[in-house]
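Let us work through a complete example step by step.
Step 1: write down the sequence.
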Amino acid sequence: MRRHLEIILALPLAAVLTACQDYVTGTSAVPPAPTGLYYRLEPSGDPDRPLGVVLRWDAVNDPALAVYNVYSRASTGAEWGLRGSTTSPSFHDDGVPHLEYFVTAANANGDESDGSASVLIDERLRLPAPDSLWSVSLNGAVHLAWRDNAFQADPQGFSAYRVYSAPYDLDLNQCVNSWSLEGTTVASTFLAGNLSNGRPRCFGISAVTIEGFESLWSALRYDTPRPDGQEVVVYTAAADPLKSGFRFFLDANNDGQAGPLELGLVSSAGTGQMDFTVQPDVNGNLQLVPLRANTSVQRYGSAPIRDLTAIDIAPNGGYARTALLAQLRCGYVFQMNEGDGFYRYGAIRVVATGTNYVIFDWSYQTDRGNPELIRTDR
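Step 2: predict the structure and record it as tokens.
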């Protein structure tokens, strides 16, 4: 059975005497030895360099108690040394901890009790790194999921997963070394929220034991939040000319930034500014027709998709300005050039069709040149 912050070694009086001052009987009684010593590491993100260790033990309820003395050593063959003293039944040792610790109780004369049982900072309790991290892009958020292998390796010793994030440089194809803690979770999923759309971020996951040992990180993944919308209705020009076109992003301020009033716009197909319209073919079946000269489209896959999140990375090629049949529950990816030399990508999923209208969900990646719409397994 796994050790749960347990006693490692009971130190006899002789061991304490070799580590500290000689035992001298004073005018006050000597308090009893502390019991229940355990520790908790403070994870830092670097499994080899925790922020510190917090030692705790049962308070000694004795009027002779004046102070606790904490002793430590860096290796099993090293001499014990006084690490510090405290009047509370806890001690914070900042930085990389020593290998082993024990505590004594002392009276006002400096007379010390026997040592408590020692605790060993045993790195062998560390869990394996989380495996198979993947993500789903959302509007202002990213959903993360990974294999629950760290918990499964030691359910009794597992405490939580830690989720880290940093900016991602799409041009250099690397994470920026500016990591921060997004949060912790006991589940193998996490929703990173309050993120800026169109700003790529890297993510990494570690697993922490009940003692605070942090594992190595998972493989890093990046994802980019993007805006989306649901159940947009676009009509044929004959049915409603003012609602016959759709534009993923219209840069009205000409600043390259996608404001909320510039995304997912429904307007007249006759303005010349819409990305696509809806038109019936010779048989009356509704089609998605690209409008702008720099907008092209292709169907995503050959079968219906369960929802919009099934569309992951925009295809590298295969786009055309050919009209495509608007088929129920099917996905379509649009490639657009806003005139700045970079492609941008949007996607829709048809959720319903009528005789003269199409209802669809949509997503759009505001980060120029970024083909990531929903999910990445990279």
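Step 3: interpret the result. The mean pLDDT is 90.
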